[in-house]
Specification:
Blueprint: H1 42-51, E1 58-62, E2 71-77, E3 80-86, E4 92-96, E5 111-113, E6 116-118, E7 125-127, E8 132-134, E9 154-160, E10 163-167, H2 175-178, E11 195-204, H3 208-215, H4 221-224, E12 237-240, E13 246-250, H5 267-275, H6 290-304, E14 321-326, E15 330-334, E16 338-346, E17 354-362, E18 393-395, H7 405-420, H8 436-450
Parallel strand pairs: 11-18
Antiparallel strand pairs: 1-10, 2-3, 2-5, 3-4, 4-9, 6-7, 7-8, 9-10, 11-17, 12-13, 13-14, 14-15, 15-16, 16-17
Length: about 450
């Protein structure tokens, strides 16, 4: 049954207690107002490189990108590059993308498939499991220098629900203990059966945390993105989980409670009904009833197309976005048809630049009645079958990333917030309960920054 809810604050979808959709108990993260220098200080950035990035599990990739033995791709974060490589036994290993001989990058490409890795500098060769295969002119080396048979340096790697994580210092708790989300939360979407259909990495004029802050709340929607009010509620159910994880459930298919006319069906609501297989000209309900109608239509369509994983999802999951924050630098918009992965990647040297890295994933169904949802914002003509993995679209700073009207608006917003954060008139953020995910994130960040080295 679909969950009926009242538009009230705090938003509560009133899902059954114990379900993955249920409202979580409140977390007291205090009322501290952090020093805004964390958004621009080079010293703070240096501390993050020492205290944060090596110590956390980082989302490095997705398993569908590595379907066969020898397939690899490179994960970039700051000055580090990490190779993810599919092994002969179907496992995945991770290595620093650096030759132990002179420090050359082992792979100069974003991705590929190899039988072995050969350094382009002096021809040293390594197996896909990182072991040394060949040293060019080995007899010219003192045997004592290479007696340890220098292999590629391995990085701790683990997988959950099709998401590949790495940990650089090797000291983090096991991945499943560290992830603050309950069992099934990730797995039920079957991300491992989706494919990346677009990958865009754009450079923004802001600190990576300024980006996180903007995307962790819907408080700003009526003002920065007023066009969303016809199809999206801007009160969200916010839930906080251990270890800095969080989510907001954003009801979609409904009008914002701020819109006076809750009867007439909005044109975008009609479009969403068409995507779900409903003829809007034959729909006799009101705007308030569209969301439930779409849920019912998707449930029926799921059975028709043999999408058995729909049985693991609530009715509300079939329409709503579970925008889920993976501490420290990822948010995934989770939908049954696909997911939208956002990674906020720090610049290697400039605290006022970051890379907004997006992977759009879609679960292809070979039937003309199953279309790509409009929320994905894919340009016309893109291959969505998964037959080809698109190249990364690298968008330089000050160029619109063409991710759709809403996200392009965020580029300007985030840059303006970054500039304002350095003003003498700004003494630090004052977060409301609608921004509780932001406070939760910064509270966890402080635990890493302030703990003993």
């Amino acid at each position: 049954m679909s969950v009926n809810y009242k538009v009230e604050w705090p938003m509560n979808l009133h899902a059954p207690a114990g379900s993955l959709e249920a409202k979580q108990a409140a977390v007291d993260n205090g009322l501290d107002v952090p020093d805004p220098s964390r958004y621009s200080s080079a010293d703070y950035m240096k501390t993050e490189w020492e205290q944060l990035w090596p110590r956390v599990w980082l989302l490095a990739g997705v398993t569908p990108d590595l379907p066969e033995s020898g397939d690899y791709h490179v994960f970039e974060i700051g000055h580090e590059e990490i190779l993810l490589v599919r092994q002969d036994d179907a496992s995945i290993k991770a290595f620093y993308n650096v030759c132990p001989h002179r420090g050359n990058r082992i792979s100069l490409n974003d991705r590929g498939s190899v039988g072995k890795f050969t350094c382009a500098f002096h021809g040293w060769q390594f197996a896909c499991d990182g072991t040394l295969l060949k040293i060019t002119d080995e007899d010219t080396f003192d045997p004592r220098l290479i007696a340890h048979r220098p292999s590629l340096s391995e990085v701790r790697c683990d997988i959950i629900g099709g998401l590949i994580f790495v940990n650089m210092d090797g000291k983090a708790p096991p991945l499943r203990e560290w992830i603050g989300l309950p069992p099934g939360y990730i797995e039920n979407y079957e991300i491992d059966k989706m494919n990346v259909v677009r990958h865009v990495r754009s450079e923004w004029r802001a600190n990576w945390k300024t980006g996180i802050d903007a995307f962790y709340e819907t408080y700003h929607l009526p003002f920065i993105h007023p066009q969303t009010q016809g199809v999206m509620e801007d009160f969200s159910q916010y839930d906080l989980y251990p270890n800095g994880f969080s989510r907001m459930i954003v009801p979609i298919g409904v009008k914002s409670h701020r819109v006076g006319d809750q009867i007439s069906v909005d044109p975008y609501q009609q479009f969403m009904m068409q995507e779900a297989g409903i003829d809007p000209t034959k729909f006799s309900g009101t705007a308030r009833e569209v969301r439930v109608a779409i849920q019912q239509a998707k449930r029926s369509r799921g059975k028709r197309f043999g999408l058995e994983y729909y049985d693991k999802l609530t009715d509300a999951q079939l329409t709503d976005s579970w925008a889920t924050g993976y501490f420290p630098n990822v948010q995934i918009g989770m939908h049954p048809e696909g997911v939208f992965i956002m990674r906020f990647l720090p610049h290697a040297t400039d605290p006022e630049r970051f890379y907004y890295d997006n992977m759009t994933m879609f679960r292809y169904v070979e039937d003309p009645g199953y279309t790509v949802p409009g929320w994905m914002g894919l340009p016309a003509g893109m291959d969505v079958t998964g037959a080809t993995r698109p190249e990364i679209e690298r968008v330089p700073v000050d160029v619109r990333p063409n991710l759709g009207e809403v996200l392009d608006q965020d580029v300007e917003l985030v840059a303006a917030v970054q500039r304002g954060s350095k003003s003498r008139g700004f003494r630090g953020p004052l977060w409301s309960d609608q921004e509780q995910r932001v406070r939760h994130f910064h509270r966890e960040l402080d635990r890493y920054i302030n703990r003993e080295k």
